[in-house]
């Protein structure tokens, strides 16, 4: 298994390809759909699923155009569907222009706190609300990880290297975010964390960074 990271769009959101043999799932196709489609073709990969860690526009701008070229589902918590409905107005508010995005279709709402099986891939869904109501992390245990013996977590905007997701929007919840972080920090210390922005980190590193937030 191989993990390939691209930082895409104005907000430099991390888009991840998880590759096994010639199959690929994409986590957070942030933007630049043409580039993503070219990379799939160049690497001779078969896309079998698109997964969103949450519903913010900067993690999903490429989805509609990818779906126009490939008949593929988007997996997203139903609690974040309202963010899809307001995607265009949100882009205009934050980036100052009206996007020429295509509608997102074929959305599948997974069963929370369950395993998700797509093609050759099996990931555990860890609910991580707080930054958004329907935020999730995707967890690959050690035996399924891309690094021999190391578990892997795709944390979206819940946890970054030395940072956490903002919780000042009207739909955010600070207490939920605290609970989500506590769950993540209970994972094995050597878990490699791939966040929605910035560089990767580990659970061990991040355990040192948030004690005051978690008890305040």
UniProtKB/TrEMBL annotation:
It comes from the Bacteria. The keyword Metal-binding applies. Pfam families: Lactamase_B. Its cofactor is Zn(2+). Keywords: Hydrolase, Metal-binding, Zinc. GO terms for molecular function: hydrolase activity; metal ion binding. Residues 12-197 form the Metallo-beta-lactamase domain. This is MBL fold hydrolase. It comes from Candidatus Roizmanbacteria bacterium CG_4_8_14_3_um_filter_36_10. The lineage of its organism: Bacteria, Candidatus Roizmaniibacteriota.
């Amino acid at each position: 298994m191989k993990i390939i990271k691209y930082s895409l769009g104005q907000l430099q959101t991390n888009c991840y390809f998880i590759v096994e043999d010639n199959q690929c799932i994409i986590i957070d196709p942030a933007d630049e759909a043409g580039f993503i489609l070219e990379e799939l073709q160049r690497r001779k990969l078969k896309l079998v699923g698109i997964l969103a860690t949450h519903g913010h526009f900067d993690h999903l701008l490429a989805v509609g155009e990818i779906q126009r070229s490939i008949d593929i589902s988007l997996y997203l918590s139903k609690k974040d569907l309202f963010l899809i409905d307001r995607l265009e107005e949100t882009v205009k508010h934050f980036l100052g222009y009206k996007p020429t995005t295509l509608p997102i279709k074929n959305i599948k709402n997974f069963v929370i706190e369950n395993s998700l099986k797509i093609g050759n891939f099996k990931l555990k869904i860890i609910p991580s609300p707080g930054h958004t109501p329907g935020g999730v992390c995707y967890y690959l245990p050690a035996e399924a990880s891309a690094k021999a013996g190391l578990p892997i977590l795709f944390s979206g905007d819940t946890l970054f290297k030395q940072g956490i997701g903002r919780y000042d929007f009207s739909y955010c919840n600070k207490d939920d975010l605290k609970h989500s972080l506590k769950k993540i920090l209970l994972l094995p210390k050597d878990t490699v964390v791939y966040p929605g922005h910035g560089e990767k980190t580990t659970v061990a590193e991040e355990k040192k960074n948030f004690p005051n937030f978690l008890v305040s």
